[in-house]
Amino acid sequence: MIVYGIGVGPGDKELITLKSLNILKKVDKIFVPISKEGKPSVAYEIVKDYIKDKEVETLLFPMIKYKEKLKYYREKAAEKILKENKDVAVLTLGDPTLYSTFSYIWKILAKKGVKVEIINGISSIFSAAKALNMPLVEGNEKLCILPHGKDIEKYINDFDTIIVMKTKNLKDVLKKINNKNIIVGLVKRATFEDEKIAIGNIDNINFDEFSDYLSIAIIKRIKDDDN
Q: pTM for the whole thing?
């Protein structure tokens, strides 16, 4: 049995890799994540046109904070996968190695001696940079990734670029920054048809439009040679 953790990319159906497609064609079954019963899987929507002849089953990963509950759902998902005893794929948005729900399943399966192969996907971080028409880093610049912008005030002066995954309440987080010499780029649903962007300083962006789960922020320090 091989379990393939497949990153399906940020949203655009054409941004899934050829390797991912080839694996999806050969596996016996495909598991897709959902956050709520009856709610469609974003990852499945990206690849559904490519896997019409495949058996598909959902794995429930509710968006809750209680660690014991999260552990329960992850273990239940792993049990479902293990019952198959054949080659299967588990889809995940972006890349399986970066803030992916699959990473928790990966650990459980590895402890049980199951062979897991990761098929990398394009991260929304890169798609957001493309949407904003800006490089993430150049030369010797340093980059930092912060979920929810946690402790951003500690890092803003040490990094040239900060990526914030999950941008809810980001405006309140950014108010903690003493360094006002920054530019903020926000992207919602990068590469989807309804992609939305905004770029500017803290005071002239409507942050309420970017509280979507699939939103990302790129914050860059403005250096003297940028002016």
A: 0.89
Is residue 164 domain-shared with residue 115, that is, in the same domain? no
E strand residue ranges, the chain: 2-7, 29-34, 55-60, 88-92, 115-119, 143-147, 161-165, 182-188, 196-200, 215-221
Assess whether 107 and 178 both reside in one domain.
Answer: no
* Count of beta carbons in the 10 Å neighbourhood of residue 21: 16
Cα atoms in the 13 Å half-sphere on the side-chain side of 103: 9
Shared domain for 83 and 162, answered yes or no, is no
Q: State how far the Cα of 196 lies from the Cα of 120, in Å rounded to an integer.
A: 25
DSSP string covering 53-113: TSEEEEEE------HHHHHHHHHHHHHHHHHH-S-EEEEESB-TTSS-THHHHHHHHHHTT
pLDDT digits (tens, 9 = 90+) for 60-95: 988 877 788 888 889 999 999 999 989 999 999 999
**What does each C-alpha distance from 33 to 37, 57, 204 come to in angstroms?**
10, 9, 36
Containing structural domain, residue 147: 124-226
In 10 A of CB 117, how many CB atoms? 13
